[in-house]
Design brief:
Elements (H helix, E strand, L loop, with lengths): L4 E3 L11 E5 L11 E7 L13 H9 L3 E6 L10 H15 L1 H4 L1 E11 L1 H12 L8 E5 L11 H8 L5 H6 L13 E6 L8 H12 L4 E6 L27 H13 L7
Parallel strand pairs: 3-4, 3-5, 5-6, 6-7, 7-8
Antiparallel strand pairs: 1-2, 2-4
Helix pairs in contact: 2-4
Length: 266
């Protein structure tokens, strides 16, 4: 595996430099059959980045035969609400521009976000330039709406003192889905009390109205922030749920079908 940290900018903001960490499988299958890739965006309410939703997820995609990248993006206190978006867009641009060196297919790159990281992933899908938009989106218990069912802390950290009705509307993403939104895999738990399930339901409705193909899984039990829902990434026994952990295998199968590729990897 090729594991390195790539800086997205040269100038640090408040001592922080956004980066991507690479988890690149060294052995491309062949020149004609290079690997797909996934950009992983951990959650954390736009105030931190969850380690449980970063490297463990990237390695799981590696095991399924996908090269992967983890985005270490700007969080509160931000100089600008656009900074996380700009970090994500730069990351996608760098991955695509260096696809040949990375041994990946620039037309088969997915983004996988969790919670506020899923909000950032979906924001990139909506507002990114054509070259920066991923080819597929994987959204895990996503923050979507700034309305009645909002995770208010995420929007407070993202928008800060500049929060206005105009910005709240702009980042209430269910209002801005278009037919160009990439195919989407979506999962949530019914019992999520931090980011209500309505976030995913509103997104599903918007995707359907715009004829965007998606696969969605609503699990009956489990709280917020489960990541892979396995013991090795769990904060407590409550975070271990074998049923919920099925999302990764379901996601990999969906991603292979969406990208039109055969199964490979471990």
């Amino acid at each position: 595996m090729k594991n390195e940290i790539i800086r997205l900018t040269e100038t640090a903001s408040d001592g922080f430099v956004p980066t991507i960490t690479t988890y690149i499988i060294d052995n491309p299958l062949s020149r004609e059959q290079i690997r797909p890739a996934v950009l992983v965006i951990p959650g954390g309410g736009y105030r931190k980045r969850s380690a449980r939703e970063a490297e463990p997820v990237a390695l799981q995609f590696n095991a399924a035969g996908f090269s992967s990248f983890v985005l270490n993006y700007s969080v509160a206190p931000l100089n600008s609400y656009n900074m996380p978006f700009e970090d994500a867009a730069r990351a996608m641009r760098i991955i695509r521009e260096n696809a040949e060196d990375f041994g990946i297919d620039k037309n088969k790159i997915a983004v996988c976000g969790f919670s506020a990281g899923a909000h950032l992933a979906a924001t990139l899908c909506i507002y990114g330039d054509a070259a920066d938009v991923p080819n597929a989106a994987i959204l895990s218990y996503p923050v979507i709406t700034s309305g009645e069912f909002a995770h208010k802390g995420s929007f407070e950290c993202l928008l800060g003192d500049g929060m206005s009705e105009e910005l709240l509307d702009r980042f209430s993403l269910e209002k801005h889905i278009t037919p160009s939104f990439p195919p989407t895999f979506l999962w949530h738990t019914f019992e999520d009390k931090s980011v209500p399930i309505e976030n995913s339901l509103l997104l599903m409705s918007a995707l359907r109205k715009n004829n965007v193909k998606f696969e969605a899984h609503i699990y009956p039990s489990g709280g917020h922030g489960l990541s892979l829902a396995r013991r090795d990434v769990s904060r407590s026994e409550d975070g271990i749920d074998l049923h919920v952990s099925s999302w990764m295998n379901l996601c990999v199968d969906w991603l292979r079908e969406t990208f039109g590729i055969s199964a490979f990897g471990c």
